[in-house]
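In response to a reviewer's request, we include the raw inputs and outputs for one of the modeled complexes. The two entities were modeled together in a single run.
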Amino acid sequence: MVGIVAYGAYVPRLRLQRQAVYDANKWFAPNLRGQAKGERSMANWDEDSVTMAVEAARDCLGEVDAKSLRNLHFASTTLPFKDRQNAGVIAAALTVEQGLMASDVAGSQKAGTSALIASLRSADSGPSMVVASDKRLTRVASAAELQYGDAAAAFLCGTDKVIAKLVATHSVSMDFIDHFRGDESDFDYGWEERWIRDEGYLKIVPPAVKAALAAANLKGADIAHFIMASLMPAVPKQMAKMSGIAETAVRDALSDRLGDTGTAHPLVMLAHTLETAKAGERIMVLGFGQGLDVIILEATGELAKLPKRMGVSGWLARRKAETNYLKFLAFNEMLPIDKGMRAEFDKKTALSILWRKRDMIYGLVGGKCRVCGTVQFPKSQVCVNPNCHAVDSQDDYRMSGLEASVMSFTADSLTYSPDPPAWYGMITFPEGGRFMADFTDCDKEQVKVGAKMRMTFRIRDNDQMRGGFKRYFWKATPV
Amino acid sequence: MAKGIRDKVAILGMGCSKFGERWESGAEELMLEAFKEALADAGVDKKQLQAAWFSTAIDEVHVGKSGIPLSMTLRLDNIPVTHVENMCASGTEAFRGAVYAVASGAVDFALALGVEKLKDTGYGGLPGGRGAPLQQLWNANGTAPGNFAQLASAYQAAHGVGYDDIKKAIGHVSWKSHQNGAKNAKAHLQKAVEMDTILNAPMIAAPLGLFDCCGVSDGAAAAIVTTPEIAKSLGRHDVISVKALQLSVSNGSESGFNSWDGSYFHTTRIASKKAYEEAGIKNPREEVSMFEVHDCFSVTELVTMEDLHISETGKGWKDVLDGFYDADGKIPCQIDGGLKCFGHPIGASGLRMLYEMYLQLQGKAGPRQLKDPRIGMTHNLGGSPRENVASVSIIGRLDA
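The model returned the following structure tokens for the whole complex.
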């Protein structure tokens, strides 16, 4: 039986208050007043679609060894790199290289569902993961600025201990352009809503849903959870009704708390659905964008046995309201802020070193001495233990999943940080090992000597002198 | 068995430029300023110098690499010149090279000169540096104050000291240096500052405020060394000799092995212990007359006084508040204003500290002269609390 065997998600901690956005922009765009309610997720300055994808993948994998992965599909329309495999960065962070077919899936809002279909279809050949993640830029004072959000979702597909088996899929591909983002723009350009609804959704969705139901030998009424992301709140209900699906089956799009997370959103909604779905319930996932993907899944008894994970609800509960709209603009490089002289460092990356040390930098892999048992980071040729100093004695030791504690810390107002002051400090791992780590997503009250921290994969630097080479590394964040 | 450096080498002359924002001068002018004073003080001719050690630490664009800048600036007589760099211990490192050259018998007269021209970097504080290319990929994006500030959080945790107490103690450290610096015409900062001003200053890296950070200055200092015998033959009656020179460099145990608690300097403890042995000092709290220590940040000085085995571990903050290290205390520390007020041109600092000890031991320190000091100790620290170079030097009267 092919299907989903695990799910995971990630939502950034910051939640931009829509009222704050509206208050700043109402002089220019008073028409946005109706949307000045609730909040949207807002990536921290050191987050992008790759870092969010890594977090979602980790949430999904839990104790599953990433080295068992055979396929990794990464779906996004906001890939940090145009030519450098973004999925490969995720794979490196998960420390999987050998035997892995990794690919980036992009170009449409349905890239997430298309990647899920590809992942399900390749699950026969070994564990296959799909991660969808988006962090879309929006124009100042646009509706999209209020509507969009940043998030990621991940699914592990396979044939063993399936929590949601694949029932049927149906896809149509047609060049219906409701919006587009050209190569020369950072922002979406959209067409009229009524046209999108009447000529797009209404004519494309019901026939495809009907075909999918037919392929599965099901009726609309058999669908317990109907997942459709749309910026028009009435549309999913309308589509469900036209397809004979109960209105109560229409899943909450999380618009008020999260916003629409683009390519990731159908998968985010699916992850959210799996948190509460019951065995035997059928789930229909739609992915709309120059056509439509329809996926029908059926929850199994294995779902209840899945170990606990953060999931969409867990990450949504870890939240901090952000009322500073200028910070949102600055984090997205939308504000020509005076960064000062200390932001002028050349951030050129020695690619040869990065390659040599990729396990250390991307995977947070340290060493464990076979002679004295000392865990250390970085792994080195001579053991760091003053009573050992054995040579060439260390085996790889992954630190990324370990909890650390703060030994010393500071809040530095002198160094350049996009979000000053810069918090950092020495963290120690109870198994052994320590290093001076940048902290992220933390508040003054949370940082104390002895405070527990978890490691999170983040952007460390952005080399704008060379067109935006993102340097990734792990940071510590309060548990 | 090595016998150490004690009393094998004498300081024949020293010089120090005015420290500060020397907008009108380049590194070359500062070097010559210090050298002229040292040469005159030594009473020898430039042609008698047989070897030189030259120290700078940051951003070599100011002078360039190698020994050439020193040789060209001073128009030395084509003698060997070695450029040394060991972070904030660079000046002491240059001194060590010159002293060892004389002690070996290879030369009779050697020069050590250190300089740094920080105010041409365009930065208010120290210019940033991100370390080696691999470090740039993972080490926290910190600054010197941020790295040293962490001593405070770790010290508080290790010894159960409250925030207000630590803040007051490190504030007193800075207050003391300002009091002392006010009496030093060569110091960068020559103004006494009220405690309230210190405690309420803007935060640089919590809990270090503006006044907890040393001056970023331009300056140069120099020493000419020879043997005690030659010094005497040149008519010196008050020979100042080198009693100990020790250096301890981190091997990564603090930053990589979970035994260090972040509240002290492992290397300073080692270097100072060895220095006392080398100098024949049994009880430093009784025998050392005065200190110049590496007070790059107020909290550094506080824990250093424990690492030098003067204050009891965990009690240094009380000694500080009791005035033990004040100008009129039992053992004055930073009588010239320290890095805090004299300033911290990195490559010159170690030599600047020795310069003050040298003046004090000869009774030439003017309005800040201490009563009859016999042994002076200097200490430098380069790097950060977790990875550093610690140097300790002890000089004193030849008969001390």
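As requested, we also summarize the result in words. Chain B has a mean pLDDT of 96. Residues 163-181 of chain B form the longest helix (19 residues).
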